[in-house]
Amino acid sequence: MKKLIAAASLCVASFSVQAVTTVPEYDANAGKQIVESVCAACHGMNGISPVPSQPNLGGQNVKYLYKQLIDYKTGYRKNGIMQSQIANLSQQDLADVAGYYAEQPVWNVGYADPVTVQDATKLYLGGDKSRGVIGCAGCHGPDAAGNDWAAFPRLGGQHAEYIATQLKLFRAAGREDDITSDEQKRINDADKEGEVGMMQTVAARLSDRDIRILSDYISAIH
């Protein structure tokens, strides 16, 4: 119970952290030009990625998109390809890109496995008290549409492969005994380095099966 209370407290704290994300006034047309030359190969011009390992971005929360791009720019979120792609972009460029993708139609690409959908639904909506896992819906919503104000991302319809990878990166960061290299950990759910964010706390308690069925389920929420 204490673990659940601590996790819930982290969820409340992360609302205040994410809510301070302020996106500069952006020019979606300028963003479109950057996307065409820099981003479209992996994420598509309309934000629907042709590569399951890369995220769909169309219709995503603009605050979330901007924060992730800034985190890549500063190295707080690590990915060699992303960091090299945006190395020469300014903060205004990043805002323009985020704004452009946020204005694109939302993706709908996944289909759930009927064999595991019941277990996944319970885990997504209500978590598992016996293991201190809180439900994903508390932050991302029962329809997985995210929270625009708090900059919690839309997840529904996202590529299952991408979701699974991110959960594993968060899990590696959330487990103190994990020997995975820093390059294979994701810590940018926390306000600053050295703190433990909500996603790290939740993912640290997920098994490989949890991640597999959750990813499959989330990808099918349209």
Write a structural description.
Its main location: periplasm. This is Cytochrome c4. It is found in: Periplasm. It comes from Psychrobacter coccoides. Residues 26-105, 115-222 form the Cytochrome c domain. The chain is mainly alpha-helical. It has two domains: 2-6 and 109-219, Cytochrome c-like domain (Cytochrome Bc1 Complex, Chain D, domain 2); 28-102, Cytochrome c-like domain (Cytochrome Bc1 Complex, Chain D, domain 2, Orthogonal Bundle). The chain has ten helices and no strands. It has helices at 2-19, 28-43, 62-74, 80-85, 91-102, 117-126, 137-140, 160-174, 198-203, 208-219. α3 (62-74) packs antiparallel against α5. It is globular. 41% of the residues are buried. Residues 1-10 and 12-19 have low confidence and may be disordered.
Short summary:
By secondary structure, the chain is mainly alpha-helical. The chain has helices at 2-19, 28-43, 62-74, 80-85, 91-102, 117-126, 137-140, 160-174, 198-203, 208-219. It folds into 2 domains: 2-6 and 109-219, Orthogonal Bundle (Cytochrome Bc1 Complex, Chain D, domain 2); 28-102, Cytochrome c-like domain (Cytochrome Bc1 Complex, Chain D, domain 2, Orthogonal Bundle).
Furnish the topology, listing elements before pairings.
Layout: H1 2-19, H2 28-43, H3 62-74, H4 80-85, H5 91-102, H6 117-126, H7 137-140, H8 160-174, H9 198-203, H10 208-219
Helix pairs in contact: 2-5, 3-5, 6-10, 8-10
Largest sheet: none
> What is the average of the pLDDT values?
90
What's the number of structural domains? 2
Number of helices: 10
Q: Please write the string of helix (H) and strand (E) elements.
A: HHHHHHHHHH
Secondary-structure content class: mainly alpha
